[in-house]
UniProtKB/TrEMBL annotation:
Domain named DNA/pantothenate metabolism flavoprotein C-terminal: residues: 10-216
Organism of this sequence: Aquincola tertiaricarbonis
GN (gene name): coaBC
One term of GO molecular function: phosphopantothenoylcysteine decarboxylase activity
UniProt pathway: Cofactor biosynthesis; coenzyme A biosynthesis; CoA from (R)-pantothenate: step 3/5; Cofactor biosynthesis; coenzyme A biosynthesis; CoA from (R)-pantothenate: step 2/5
Protein name: Coenzyme A biosynthesis bifunctional protein CoaBC
Cofactor binding comment, as recorded: Binds 1 FMN per subunit.
Entry cofactors: FMN; Mg(2+)
Length: 224
């Protein structure tokens, strides 16, 4: 019912969102991942849909129901997420990167389960850097309005500001962890060209709705 009374700030807009962790396989039974819950991305998908947007959600491995009216694509690895997002990005007005993309993947994935050697030797894991999905979208000639997330453990404003410039994006949303990671509530720091301000501590759906209002205010009305 509440959604019914929300102003349709994103009517006619297409919003693409990444959410959750990625999973980088080592062998058929093991892999590298992280504790991202995907909650913020799913809350944003719901809030953007409520605001009238057509929403595409590209999700890493998370166990969460798809918000009503949202088109969802499931992926495992960073490269799969990159391959799913890049062709979709030019068809969207806004890209919100909430995914905690694994920064590195194993150089090679073993076809069969790696077995213990028996003489206490341990395998060595060589890693390769994954593509930066947000930076790649921001570098597209036909780029959507790009919003990044920065989860930091210290010096939030400084790290978030540097990341915004490094990735060449107009808006970055910072949050301090790890205490808040995976929880239902959080506080956000918005950093753009003009400066920075907080969205005070609230549950993730309230934060998502506030962030949708901030984004809608920045992109203005669609051209009809
Ligand atoms: N991101 C991405 N692809 C990656 C890494 C990050 O799209 N391979 C996006 C995240 O979804 C987030 C933003 O970039 O919106 C910042 O992610 P973060 O991990 O904080 O930044 P990194 O550039 O990876 O730097 P670091 O992890 O060293 O702090
Ligand atoms: Ca990272």
């Amino acid at each position: 019912m509440i959604a019914f009374f929300q102003p349709k700030l994103l009517a006619g807009r297409r919003v693409l969102i990444t959410a959750g962790p990625t999973f980088e396989p080592i062998d058929p039974v093991r892999g590298i991942t992280n504790h991202s819950s995907g909650k913020m991305g799913f809350a944003l998908a719901r809030a953007a849909q409520e605001a009238g947007a057509q929403v595409t959600l590209v999700a890493g491995p998370v166990h969460m129901p798809t918000p009503r009216g949202v088109a969802r694509l499931d992926v495992q690895t960073a490269r799969q997420m990159h391959a799913a997002v890049l062709p979709l990005a030019p068809q969207h007005d806004v890209f919100i990167a909430t995914a905690a993309v694994a920064d590195w993947r194993p150089d090679t994935t073993a076809d069969q389960k790696i077995k213990k050697q028996g003489d206490s030797r341990v395998p060595t894991l060589a890693l390769t850097e994954n593509p930066d999905i947000l930076a790649a979208v921001a570098a597209l000639p036909q780029r959507p309005y790009c919003v990044g997330f920065a989860a930091e453990s210290e010096q939030l404003l400084q790290h978030a500001s540097e990341k915004r410039l490094r990735k060449n994006i107009p808006l970055i949303v910072g949050n301090l962890g790890p205490a808040t990671f995976g929880r239902d509530d959080n506080a956000l720091l918005l950093v753009d060209e003009q400066g920075h301000h907080d969205i005070p501590h609230a549950d993730k759906l309230t934060l998502a709705r506030a962030l949708v209002r901030e984004i809608a205010g920045r992109i203005g009305q669609p051209h009809t």
